[in-house]
Amino acid sequence: MAENRYTIATDMGGTFTDLVLEDRRTEQVHIVKSPTVLDDPIRGILAAVDLAAAEIGVGRRELLAGTDTFVHGTTRALNAILTGTTARTAFLTTRGHPDILLFREGGRVDPFDFTRRYPAPLVPRALTWEVSERVGADGTVVTPLDEAAVVAKLREVVAAGVEAVAVCLLWSIANPAHELRVGELIEEHAPGLPYTLSHRLNPIVREYRRACSTVLDASLKPLMTEYLEAMRRRLAEEGLAGRLLIVTSGGGVMDSAAVAAAPVHVIGSGPAMAPIAGRDVVDRTTGHQTVLVADTGGTSYDVGVVRDGEVSSTREAWLGAPHLSHMTGLPSIDIKSVGAGGGSIAAVVSGLLTVGPRSAGARPGPVCYGQGGTEPTVTDAAVVLGYLDPEYFLGGRVTLDIAAAERAIEERIAAPLGFTTVQAAAAVMQLATEHMVRAIEDTTVAQGIDPAAAVLVAGGGAGGFNAIDIASRLRCAAAVIPDTGSVLSAAGAAISDLSSDFAAACPATTQDFDFARVGAVIDGLVERAREFVASTGVAGELADVRLFADARYPHQVWEVEVPLPTLRIGSAVDVDALAEAFHKMHEKLFAISDPASVVEVVGWRVRASCRTRTTALGQVESGPARARTQRTRPVYFTGHGLVQAAVRTHDDIASGEVVAGPAIVETPVTVVVVNPDATATRASTGALILRRNGDHR
Fold this sequence. Notes:
By secondary structure, this protein is α/β, with parallel strands linked by helices. Helices cover 32% and strands 26% of the residues. The strands form 8 sheets. Strands 13, 14, 15, 18, 21, 22, 31, 34 and 35 form a 9-stranded mixed β-sheet that branches. It has a 7-stranded mixed β-sheet with strand order 12-11-4-1-2-3-28.
């Protein structure tokens, strides 16, 4: 039997599938990139596994047989929602409330723009059925459930060709009896039809958010169940006997079976892991308290924030522009995304240069890939500027067509603007940088963060192209490129915790606290959390169970999540501690508090986290060194023109060594550009720390 010594983590993006392989016996880490296969994503994952296996000198089956944990991050669920390929879903709700999904929540980005169109409801009226029942806010039954009517409506649901059912009844969070009975009737009269009950999935007060999460979850069940079962089966056929874990939007991982039962939790699967990896890198490299984590993929630029060791999260996760798209209705890592990745398409529209949000994707990809692409991208600009060596892309597995990239930029960008080819390429890179800076500014200002007090962690295959320019624009102390930077999200997946949240709506106030009622609710949540911990098989000392309160001041519309120092509210002292924690959190978030005010709690949440490891991720092994004689190449820098830049391989740079720009630092899967007025220092962790000359903060 093979020794279980490997951990594999994958992140499947729109262009590349990234893989991190850790050999725990040797403490070595190997990273590979392989093109994503859009029509068969699992085949793309297996191709990445093959590359990793070849790098350590074993076969695919031997590698998978020796892997005890396989972690997977995927955009499969999100892509299905954005492309409208989720299941045909029915929405069952309380009579008189069929327009929950239509009325949405208030909000307008521009108060003077009355022409904005909101998206159609997640479920159309034709697939919405009203259920005769009513539960009051206190949990009492106002109108009994008409079971015969429900059965009749289920016949209509089946006749309509529905593939999943979402059930969201009014005040089911106070008394779920009617929702539970509807679920039983679905199983009896529409056997095999997937369904989601709102009180089980997302027991919160806000109807729109609860309805959104319920519909999204139900609509994803057929697709994600099939996808995850196929992945589990095909990996098992190839030798995997270990655990298959899936990355969640909340920054943790869950067993694949649990994800299939509640797939809404993986809508933001991929991007959520980058801040986890960024936090780990900075903790071991610079020790900064505020970290801006940016992940440059082929399609998007994703930004997250870490403050005082905590990754920023949000209760308002949107599937697009805020207020102009749909909400997931569930807490998630707070990620700001813009269409400015390595595959973002550059064009001249009405005499103005644009970059993104359209992307060349994996197929046809950038022009220089030679796969039929005709529109220039950020990657094509990088080739023209000299950032990338055409003979060494992906470690030499792919040869880039620099002549085709030059022609595309000349014809599509330079000629219309009256620029030279390299000037046009530089303009593309500058505009992409501007989009990225704006995304970070929008994220930081919204949280009251001064970027000048932060350090930037730049990840993604194209993250090193302009990291120093972005950090300089933001006045960041430094830009850090981890040794796992090109696969940052996959690296985060490899070190993430098994986690699950358990929530309940149970209103209370600090003025007249109902200890018995609240205590019973919290005890139930804690018991469920401990059952989850026991089911993971993780040692008790590696588990953490924490209690949170969703609290607000009286008459406030929104509440904030407050971590509490205890798992029980059993005395006036505990209530005082809750109030104090809320006032401090409110002050931190909004720069104001009212310690004399009563605090209202609308819900409780218990989070169980189980560490899957006790050590940091090892350092990356770059594989066989590349034999080369040429140590410089011409690179174009704005303000400096075409200059000879030193070319260094990452592994050739000693710990503590300072590399002065202009320089290019190469690995088989990425490059880091060091501007003429900047330096790169290799830290003991293997990360590169980039600074402008004269900035030694």
